[in-house]
Structures are given as C-alpha cells and as structure tokens.
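[09:14] KT: can someone run the structure on this one? pasting the chain below
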Amino acid sequence: MIDNAAIRSIEECGFNAWPAKTTVLSGGWLLRLHDGYTKRANSANAWSPGPDFEAVRRDAETLYRRHGLPVVFRLTPLADASVDELLDHAGYTRVDPTIVMTKRLDRVVADPDPMIRLETQASPHWLDGVAEATAIPTAFRLSHHALISNIQRQTVFATILAQDAQPIGYGLAVIEGERIGLFELVVHPAWRGRKLGERLVSALMAWGAAQGAASAYLQVGADNIAACRLYRRIGFSDAYPYHYRVLS
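[09:31] RB: done, structure tokens below
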C-alpha cells in the first residue's frame, strides 16, 4: 500500500474529479453532499482527522439527516483504524469494499482506436448513454448530469462505437497535474468479453499521456473479480482500499 501522502494526493484528485455540490469541513473530515447521488459524493471522508471523532460523527449525523440523506462514512487509510470499530459499535454497516488502483503511463501507446470516439464536452447523448448503461435511476439523472457538468479539471469523454455507429460503452478521464483519473467505465453486457473495456481504458490512458499525465488511477469494487482481473492484466496495481460505513 502507498503512504498517506500519496493517498491524500490521489484523494484530492478524486474529489475534484467527482465534485460534490457542497462540502462542509468538520474536525479534519470532509462532509460531502450531492443530492444523494453516489456515496462518494454524499459521505464523510477523512482528510486530516483530529482526535475527537465522536464530535465529527455527531456533526455528520445531524448534517445528513437535516438534508434527508443516509449517514455514510467513506473510510480510507487516512482514517484511524479505531474509527471503523467505533462506527461498527454505533450500528453502522460495512458495505462496498473498493480498491484504488494506479498505473504508470511511461509505456502507454498513443495510437488512435477507430472504435472509440473522444470528445472534450459531455454531450446529451453521452450523458444519457452512461445513465442508461449504468442503470442510474431516473430520479438521480439530473444530479448525475450536474455532477459531470461541474468537473472543473480538463476532461475527456469516451464512447465505444460498434460498426453501425451504435454506442456500446462509455468512460471519462479527468486530468489533474500528472495524474489522470478514469471514471464511468462501462461496456454494455451484450458486448462484454471482447476486450472492449481494455481498449477503452487504453484509449483514455493514451489521451492522458498525450496531455502530460505520468500515472493513472481508478476505483473498482473489490468484489468485481472480472474488472479487477482486467485492470491488473493491463498493468494496474493495488494502491489502497476503502469501504463505507452506513448507518443502519
């Protein structure tokens, strides 16, 4: 696992790449809110935590309940291990173990892929296509679109096209300094097993390398064995884990 300074650097990029509508600081934690769309954008995250976690917990519970949202803590290695135990005793359920992976880009080939269209703006077709492909509930689609539209760093939006120009997969990449983050990676189920996901990731990394990025990062569910196997096969390595605690 990488050290806390490197973790904090990736976390900073990740927060900017997946921006919440509102962020409240509380005792060295970032309490993020975005209308309930995704736990990443609606959770308490350790940044430079102080010793009084119980005060943070009470503050988070008050804040999220006032907004009608579940109380969620996202626990990376920046949070002391005792926090996980305290939340467990307080009735919080552990869910969604996730792995952040990284890869150096010094050997990425920048040859264009004819199946993959890259655009610098999120078109309505891209936004709606990702929402359909990832089964975002209708009630959250406006929040999803607003979150994507609020990314302030340089971003590229990828669409995988079949021979008849039918969109069959999507992804986006956000570059900040020498890091590029990969998000919204999805291939329609009927087209899986054809290495399209690998081609999608490679195209986004090549774009990042061309913009000066030296490394890539992504987040994948620890239980998603196929995706973990894919990313490790193309050179990603585990950087650090995180999981959520949700008040039952």
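[09:33] KT: thanks! Residues 117 and 196 are 13 Å apart (CA to CA).
[09:34] RB: yep, looked fine to me
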